[in-house]
Amino acid sequence: MGKAKKTKLRKYQSQLHLMRNKPVQALASKKPIDKTTTKRLQASQRPTVPFCPNDRILLIGEGDFSFAHSLHLHHACTSLTATTYETPNTLLAKYPQAASHINTLELAAQKVLFSIDATKLGLPLPNGGGPTIRKTPWDRIIFNFPHVGGLTKDINRQVRANQELLVKFLERAKALLAPGATIVVTVFEGDPYSLWNVRDLGRHVGLKVERSFKFDAGLYEGYKHARTLGNLEGGGGWKGENRDARTYVFGMETKDFGST
User: What is the pLDDT of residue 29?
Assistant: First the structure.
């Protein structure tokens, strides 16, 4: 082997030795994680409760009143008005367990109203609640899992009926808000619920989605999702509280609160 070749070989072997013994610094060379991004990710993963204990809260479309019951007992809410579309007799026929929830609420001086139509909020009694609902500037108006029931098997007609329900509800509810207040709507995820286009329905009546997040039924101890048609005979295996659902928090597009 010539002198020149020996010199190149020794140089190559020397470089190879240095490379093999060089400390690995791959982790150290990574770009540091932005603290703001980290905080934002952590905040988005926290369970979200869209109200405070001292808020004036109007609950629309309660089923067995287990949600209202949980807000009172486990979230220390002290200014609740919980409403249902059903008459007392129909409600108890559908959800016998509602009796104890209502009793607890009324003993604590929380209001329970029957036969309240979400599309007529604040209008004269009986369907709109009249002054009982209209005189209070609400901090939170909450409608969990709005649904018109099984009006038809035609999906398109069913979607339109639920969209109409939500639009009329949002129009009436926004006129009852206190300044800076919000309307909170929760619906199941996936079809046909995604076809409702909840965000667009809000924009249609001058509302904007301030934030949305996964609904966590586990935050509301004792809460059970009540089917529109009533309890399943024998209990059944269907549990709505275990289905994926999303909550939308609507605020006013303008500062024109309380306009009709």
Answer: 38
